[in-house]
């Protein structure tokens, strides 16, 4: 029970502070309290590493035939790294808010406004995300996803000012709700076959629905933009709303890979995932703006995690999932540019190249698939050719943002810059710590790879990255028609029109059939259709009997 206290802290203290704020408004004091709570939660969960696995039922006694279907929490080798990374992300948000608070008060940039309610919502929302990450079975995971989506929808509906914001909030909720529906179909399938809906019972049919659920929630299957078009909330809260649901959706991928559950229709899933990764990576490199670019980062990095899971590489899937949450969050929080901090972050982002003993080193295992006996060899080769391009686009986009960021002299005191730098640097340092404690480096050494073999993917990515940056430095830019095509694909209107077209075609078919059957020769047409249908059934029955 002790190691599950971080979940209690993150969900309980925001409520207490919200009640306290009605009588005693002390913004600085609340900031210190929230940082202290988050730091204690981080230390408790970090110490849980030596006691894994840990489980706890949320009900005092079983209420159904399968106790495994009762809500439960589980901290094991797959959920523990994600939990630590999520709390680290929250701690970084709170620490870096110190500089955004002073920037807002000085009237320099109102977009970085920080309020007490944004801290309260951010901590509570992170607590719900942690509950989804530590879900012990599929029903608990679905409940965690639903709690996240309902909370965000409620906040957006309460704060919306225009109809466009309302439509955006409903669109985000609808897409993620479709993902929950897919996961529920998997749960219902397991219950109908008499199998408890826990993670050890996953089979290819259920895995298909779970991959589809994760793809919808991460904007991968199909690729779409599930974020508002304008920043409606303070920067810290918008960042939380982007990355917490994404992190909470990735844990299930490593679980499916660890039990070697390759989904049905895996070829189609891989092709769509690779296409989404390429589109997301290209959009990440050329798109400007926070809300326009970071969903593309999430989709591109999540595509690598999904492909690694289908290739039965749970450590690679975990590595790319952590990279998505930590490195993407680091770039999202780097809002006040500083020359010295630029150098430190450039050094930290070397870890994204998957060079030996870096934070994402285990990500190279995606290039050494263990599913060659199940998946078509041509499909694996095709993916291996395009995966380095997705990987390179992530590194190039990150390096471009850091290299082009200019120092900003806000005239703030030195201690503010120190706290801000600490909030940023704690993210890459935790990434390296997790790669070591979670056994990701050990997984590479156990893959029967020499140091040279384990270094080749990273060096290839470095060469491709330097080449792309050199071309950019020489003045070569992306053609306008490419940017326009990407913008068109990012706009979900084309998807809605495609669905509307299918609906129109089905409606036209029904109306045409109805007119034919109601005409003068309607009876003859009906008899003809019945005869054709009967002959088809008889033919199938005869073939089955033989």
What's this model, at a glance?
This protein is mostly helical and 546 residues long. The chain has helices spanning 5-21, 27-47, 79-105, 116-133, 138-159, 163-192, 204-217, 235-258, 266-286, 290-310, 314-333, 339-348, 377-404, 414-437, 440-445, 451-473, 480-490, 493-518, 522-545; strands at residues 54-57, 72-75.
Question: Would you kindly provide a written description of the structure presented here, covering whatever features stand out?
Answer:
This protein is 71% helix and 1% strand. It has a two-stranded antiparallel sheet with strand order 1-2. The longest helix is centred in the N-terminal third of the chain and has 30 residues, at 163-192. It has 19 helices and two strands. With 546 residues, the chain is mainly α.
Specify the number of helices: 19
Task: Quote the beta fraction.
Answer: under 5%
Overall geometry: globular
- How are the strands ordered across the major sheet? 1-2
Number of E strands: 2
- The chain-level structural class is mainly alpha
How does the major sheet shape up? Answer: 2 strands, antiparallel
Give the N-to-C terminal Cα separation: 62 Å
The string of secondary-structure elements, in order, is: HHEEHHHHHHHHHHHHHHHHH
The parts where pLDDT drops under 50 for at least 5 residues are none
Mean pLDDT: 80
Estimated radius of gyration? 25 Å
